[in-house]
Amino acid sequence: MVQINSNFQKLPGSYLFSEIARRVAAYAQANPDRALIKLGIGDVTLPLPAAVTAAMHAAVDEMATAQGFHGYGPEQGYSFLRDAIAQQDYQDRGVNIQPDEIFISDGAKSDCGNIVDLFGPDNKVAVCDPVYPVYVDTNAMSGRAGEYDEKSGRWTNLVYMPCVAENDFMPDLPGEEVDMIYLCFPNNPTGAAATKEQLKPWVDYANRTGAVLLFDGAYEAFITTPGVPHSIYEIPGAETCAIEFRSFSKTAGFTGTRCAYTVVPKALTRQGASLNAMWNRRQCTKFNGVPYVVQRGAAALYTPEGRQQAKDHVAVYQNNARVIREGLANAGLTVSGGVDSPYVWARTPNGMGSWEFFDLLLRQANVVTTPGAGFGPSGEGYIRLTGFGETEATRQAVERIRNVL
Ligand code: MLT
Q: Where along the chain is pyridoxal 5'-phosphate bound (predicted)?
């Protein structure tokens, strides 16, 4: 008889955003007359930038010719895209990342999940609390998280680093030695952005102890505050201890088109092994690469027009986040985030539970949010709203929430 991976049996309930989608669908079915406004999952609403679709159309036409047809592509991504990323996202910002340290993929979520393949089963994993659930669930699936404790909402083998109002939503270095450390800045879900001074101790820690930082930079394009680093590699020494995940999903409307990249520096070695070589081996074996047409679309973001169009997208979402942040603050809620991030993190009123407030807003305001408790125990008492909605709908959502409050 086959043995299943019994770690899956330990996972509580369903994946956070699937659970929300299920509840919202049930509510919508029972109340077909209600027009819901969705500010829950961070899914974008603007169409793909014109530069992207033009490049994709051209690539489709190329694929229809004998000379321009592309079969299997390089698993690591085409050099036209890797070169552009290395140059414009890193070298132009004074960071020495080379094209062969960049791996094109179909999503930061996939890569954040798949990266655990590189690490042994007994590593101690540290996560922020609240946290993007993918880091926790994928370590649970691969047996590194121990057992789920319903009462505390925590996994027995994970080290949780609370990010709460008292520490400005910035994790403190863990009190015990850890090996794999997930950091996400600007943060999902709290919207907090880390300065160089706040990131440096993590780089120093990882280099000193041999830990690896798994740095999720999916929201870097939303940084507005001068001096806030856009990449972990802006911190000296990060190239020997950090892997960085980036995505085109939120910056250029690729949530349905799928393109992202992961940076694994060649200087990053552990136990004599190159993590760049290991990730390359993993991708060549398990991944067929991102479609040529999609990579051509992503490469268009590195032309002057494409860059400007992506900036314009981000500006719309930044403005939405501002509308949410200011509107909810005026309504008396305590809010943070939404400045260097598309996410606004709001405290529930009168000590209400996250799911309770989520339900209240769903039923009375017909606005979908994300309950903070879904991101971990320290998210209890908060909800998250995204700036990725349509502008007019976002304004209306804030108005409806204010009326309910
Ligand atoms: C979120 O809402 O946190 C994100 O959209 C989820 C994701 O990017 O996978």
A: 72, 108-109, 132, 188, 219, 247-249, 258, 288
- For a substitution probing ligand 1, which of 109, 135, 216 has the most ligand atoms within 8 Å of its CB? 109
Instruction: State which amino acid sits at residue 263.
Output: V
CB of 109 closer than 6 A to ligand 1? yes
CA 341 – CA 338 distance, rounded (Å): 5
Measured distance CA(40)–CA(97) in Å, rounded: 34
pLDDT tens sequence across 77-105: 999 999 999 999 999 999 999 999 999 99
244 alpha carbon – ligand 1 mean position (Å): 17
* 188 within ligand 1 shell (Cβ under 6 A): yes
> CA 346, CA 358: separation in Å to the nearest integer?
11
33-50 residue pLDDT tens: 999 999 999 999 999 999
42 lines ligand 1 (CB under 6 A): yes
SS3 per-residue string spanning the chain = CCCCCCHHHHCCCCCHHHHHHHHHHHHHHHCCCCCCEECCCCCCCCCCCHHHHHHHHHHHHHHCCCCCCCCCCCCCCCHHHHHHHHHHHHHHHCCCCCHHHEEEECCHHHHHHHHHHHCCCCCCEEEEECCCHHHHHHHHHCCCCCCEECCCCEECCEEEEECCHHHCCCCCCCCCCCCEEEEECCCCCCCCCCCHHHHHHHHHHHHHHCCEEEEECCCHHHCCCCCCCCCHHHCCCHHHCEEEEEECHHHHCCCCCCCEEEECCCCCEECCEEHHHHHHHHHHHHCCCCCHHHHHHHHHHHCHHHHHHHHHHHHHHHHHHHHHHHHHHHCCCCEEECCCCCEEEEECHHHCCHHHHHHHHHHHHCEECEEHHHHCHHHCCEEEEECCCCHHHHHHHHHHHHHHC
- Closest atom, ligand 1, to C-alpha of 249: 8
Burial class of 166 by CB neighbour count within 10 A (0 to 12, 13 to 18, 19+):
exposed
pTM of the predicted model as reported, rounded to 2 decimal places: 0.97
* pLDDT bucket at 14, cuts 50 / 70 / 90: confident
43 CA from centroid of ligand 1 (Å): 7
pLDDT band at 13 (very low <50, low <70, confident <90, very high): confident
72 in a labelled binding site: yes
